[in-house]
Each structure stands twice: as structure tokens, then as C-alpha cells.
Amino acid sequence: MAAPRTPRKVLGRLSLPERNFVAEALRTETVGGVLLLVAAVTALVWVNSPLSDSYQSVRDFHLGPAALGLDLSVQHWAADGLLAVFFFVAGIELKRELVAGDLRDPRAAVLPVVAALCGMAVPALVYLVTNLAGSGDTGGWAVPTATDIAFALAVLAVIGTSLPSALRAFLLTLAVVDDLFAILIIAVFFTSDLDFAALGGALLGLVVFWLLLRKGVRGWYVYVPLALVVWGLMYNSGVHATIAGVAMGLMLRCTRREGETVSPGEHIEHLVRPVSAGLAVPLFALFSAGVPVSGGALAEVFTQPETLGVVLGLVLGKALGIFGGTWLTARFTRASLSEDLSWPDVFAVATLAGIGFTVSLLIGELAFADDPALTAEVKAAVLTGSLIAALLAAVLLKVRNAKYRALWDDENRDDDLDGIPDVYEQDKPEYHLRMAEIHERKAAEHRRLARVAAGAGDRDDSPA
Hints:
This protein is mainly α.
């Protein structure tokens, strides 16, 4: 007779290695998120100040070799060039999740994959319904489908410092899967006329990149020039250049071999992630988030079908899609939610995922490239929807903050001071032996202090 399957927990406690990895990744992304917010606010202030002409001059300034088809504006360099670094890191994250993280286990991978798919499908549906009802342009259906992990974690840094690691990991994994599907959407739906010669050259460059990795060739001076060539060819092929970044990220090895403390992929991610979070994404935000804001412009966000569809997609579609996908997955796989959490916690994180920003701004530029006025209005809608989602999530998370703080304290308690949280050692006999010794020493100290207080001397009877 087959042994009964152990019931699976949804959003249960992470393994210690996964918890440590998530904590390190979140620290970098949180700093990057704060820089992202600063860049976005700077862009909004700059473009709505008397210096707005200078903003447009810098944003539209062209540079680069025209002979190579790369005479691009600063805004395009940020969107097509710097975001390739962001998607390179996303590719490494996805590869690591597939081979060493939560996604390597098909049973565990079902939850974030289904949640991410529903969290993209429902916002797109909300956008389409809104625009079909209002006779709007349905071409922007993909704008509200993205989640900006850096922006979301920056909000968490302010309002959710005690959020349990399982919820943080769920948001991070969800965003990684979300990035993958966003990349596929860009590649499939926003590819212009193809230049097959350039595309063939880019694919050949990727093959060379893969062969060099397989042969164990090392040295940034080999890979960085090759990556730039692949990126340039991909850009000229008509396929969005960020695809080159994610393709190279997926090729890196993210499993550890004997004698390795970190895999090559983890090492490179550790080096490149600060560049992505601290430079690439903030600069993209600086030159993409600059949209004129006025009372009339904000009112139009809620009256035009295209912009209203974006706001509703981010605020309602994301929350309902992710929450519904998570609940349905738990329901039909007979998994149960962790005892420490409740479904409102999942809904709060799903609401936080409605912060679209970076990728939503990028898709907005691609979807309405022929209509600069509508592009600016859609950008304003992305900013508005992301802000509303952040405020709603802040309220929902604050309601349970006391509970989260208690969970966080239990999760990080280390009474035996060995550097490993006690919750990961409670099943080990040596842990209980250490704790018994600690309790005995404390009891002996209490007895000594009691004798001193009673005038009976200061004899030490603690165990040797």
C-alpha cells in the first residue's frame, strides 16, 4: 500500500538556505527600490517645474554610433540598454529558482506560476473589458500585467519590516515568474519588422556565449564585449533588446559543484544586482516617469478608457487575479495555508503586487509608440495605479502588523547564539542539550543572586 502523501502547506516556513538567499536578495532590491522611488519623484518634479524644457532636452538627446543603427535618445538607451541589465538579473533569478529554488519542485512551483498567470490574465481582462465598453484602444492590454518587485519591496521597507519571510519569498518568486511572462509578452507582441540577418547574428552570439560557459572560460573581458555585440544585434533585429539580457542570464549555471561555496550564476548575480537595482532601473525611471501632472490630467486618468483600464487592472485585476489563483491552487491541490497566516495576508501581498511601474512603463511605451500623447497619459495611469495599490497594501498590512512582528520575532530568535534561528534547530537533540545547559546556567545565576540578596555570600554553584 502506498504511503499517504504529507499534506502540503501553502506559504509555509522556508528552508534555511532559501531563507538566507531571499533575505540577501531582498536587501539589495529594497535599496534599489528606494533609489527607484527617488528617481521617479525627481522625474515628476523636474518635468512639472519651470525646468521642464531641460528635462525633455536631456531625455531626447541622441548619442551612439549611427552606422551601427544605435544613434538612440537617452530615454531609449535607458529603456533598451540599461533594462537589459535588469532582465539579465531576472534571467539568473529565474534559472536559480528552476534549478535550486522553489520552482525546482513541481508541486511547489504550481502556486507561484498559477498565481502569476492569473495575476497577469485578470488585469489584461479588466483592461479589455473597460476599453471594449468605452470604445478605447485595446492595444494596451499588457500594460497592467507586470509587477515591479523593486518598487514593491521599497514599500515593504517602510510599512512591512516585520513581514514573515514566507510572504516575502512568495512576492519575490511571484515577481520572477511575472518577469518571465512579461519578457515573453514583449518578445511575441511587441516585436517590429524582423531583420533576419541581425537576428541570426544575435542567435549565433548567444551560441558562442553558451559554448564559452560550457568550456569554463572565465574573464569579464571575454563576456562583456560579446554581450554588447549580442545586445546590439538583437536591438537591430527588431526583437526588443532586453530579450538578449534574459537569454544570457538563463544560460549561467546556478547549481553548485563540489568545492564551490556559490555557483557562477549566484556569483555574477551578486556582482550585477547592485548595478541593476542601483543604477539601471533608477535611470530608466528617471527618463520614463517624467509626465506632466495637473488636476485636469489626473481627472482624465479616471475618465479615458485606456487609462482607467490600466488603473483598474493594476489595483483590482492584480489583487483579484493573484489571490484567486493562490486560493484555487490551494483548493484543488488540497494544500492548506500555513497556520501562522490567513487569507487576508495573501490578499494584502496580492494588492502590493499591483505596483507595476518599471515594466508597465516599458510596455506602455511599446504599446502606444505611435501616439506620444496617449503614451504620457498611460504613464500617468501607471503611476496612479501603482500609488493606489501601494496605499491599499499599506493599510492592509498595517492591520496585521502586530501579528507579523510576533511571527518575525519567533522566526529570528536565536537563544543559543549560534547564528542559526532556533526554529530551524528544534528537531535536533544537540539543540535541546545546548538549551538545557543555557537554562541551567541561568538558574544557577538566579540562585546566586538570591543568596547575595539574602546575605549568604557569593559562592558560585553553576555547573562546570
